Amino acid sequence: MTRRGCLVVFVAIVALLMAGYGTAYLASDEVRFLSRAGAEEFRILARRRPIADLVGDARLPAERRALLRLVLDARDAADGLGLEAGDTYRQYSDVGRDTLLLVLSASPPDCLCPHVWKYPIVGRVPYKGYFDPAQAERAARDFGARGYDTWLRPSGAFSTLGWFEDPLLSTALDRDSVELAATVFHEIAHNTLYVRSATPFNESFAQMAGYRAAEAFFRARGDSALARRAADRWHDEILLGAYYDSLGTRLERLYASKPGEAALAKGRGEAAAWAREEVVTRVAPAMRTLRLQASDQPVNNARIIAARLYRTRLDLFEGWFQREGADVRRAVAALRTLMDGAEGEAAFTRLEAALGRPTSAGP
């Protein structure tokens, strides 16, 4: 075939592919979702600037430069704490808005059973992040119309698990020093240990790694006040985890009884009343850094699932940390060895067995 003939065939193939993509884009919400996600990731990567350059830019406010310097110091300390920073957070990207994306969780009203989305590599994930707010709200309405409990929450950071050189996003700089350092270590922890189809395990591990690493980081800098605040923040997360575990247990007993519509509504109302009383009398008074108020909102399974994703069996991770001499590096290295080849609920089962705790059916 001549060069001109090859060119004609190539153009025809591209035209067919584009026509097929255009049809799919119009017909498929999932194709639109993937298109927007890809475009946003490209935009984030295209806007990257080296943080080291920004730290030395006198045109930036001193407070912002100090936070950026803290990010570099934290990521440089990550390797010494057994966390694989790689090139994560060497660069900064301004996303141009105060909310990066909205994350959707959904669950039937009679079961703490998250709807899961399936993706290559990462496996099954019990939430979906939308860069397009209108698309997120439309998806939430669609689930609501099918009778699901739904919950949309904003997120200012995410990890590509080392597939890209994740930059620090501007949405993460609205946090105090402890939260910013913990966020850096949290996201880097995802690069270090990731168990496929085990989102509650991965996020809860990253919570422990984030706050315990932040505590060690500030202590090494001689800042005992911020080290104590990081430890207190982790203490509060453990309290919240225990609270949500107790609430979840109450609801699971209710749902296991297969109640009718009236009994279900009554039981959920009683669980909501218990939750308000628990916050007022037990949880809020014990908090060291967080300020909690009792909510008058009804039980929402999707919201509970979303809250528990980051707080599932935190007592196990703290127990593991203490077993390894309260040393972040040792705890992370030993947990990576323990989780080799694990997938899904096997992650918690292995951790429970290693600690000699009763094995549950999984979160």
Shape: globular
Whole-angstrom Rg: 23 Å
Count of individual helical segments: 13
Largest sheet: 3 strands, mixed
Structural class: mainly alpha
Total discrete domains: 1
SSE series: HHEHHEEEEEHEEHHHHHHHH
The counted number of beta strands is: 8
User: In order across it, which strands form the biggest sheet?
Assistant: 1-2-8
Low-pLDDT segments, ≥5 res: 1-27
Q: What share of residues is helical?
A: 55-70%
Strand content: 5-15%
Q: Would you tell me the overall average pLDDT?
A: 87
Distance between the termini: 61 Å
Description:
It is a single chain. The protein is mainly alpha-helical. It has one domain (49-355). Helices cover 59% and strands 8% of the residues. The protein contains 13 helices and 8 strands. β4 (117-119) and β5 form a beta hairpin. The radius of gyration is 23 Å and the shape is globular. The model is unreliable at 1-27 (pLDDT under 50).
Please describe the structure with a list of short key phrases separated by commas or semicolons.
363 residues, mainly alpha, three-stranded antiparallel beta sheet, 13 helices, 59% helix, 8% strand
Offer a quick outline of the entry.
The chain is mostly helical and 363 residues long. It is 59% helix and 8% strand.
Question: In terms of topology, how is this protein built?
Answer:
Blueprint: H1 3-27, H2 29-46, E1 49-50, H3 51-55, H4 62-78, E2 91-93, E3 101-107, E4 117-119, E5 123-125, E6 128-130, H5 133-145, E7 149-155, E8 168-169, H6 177-192, H7 199-220, H8 224-256, H9 261-286, H10 301-309, H11 314-323, H12 328-338, H13 346-355
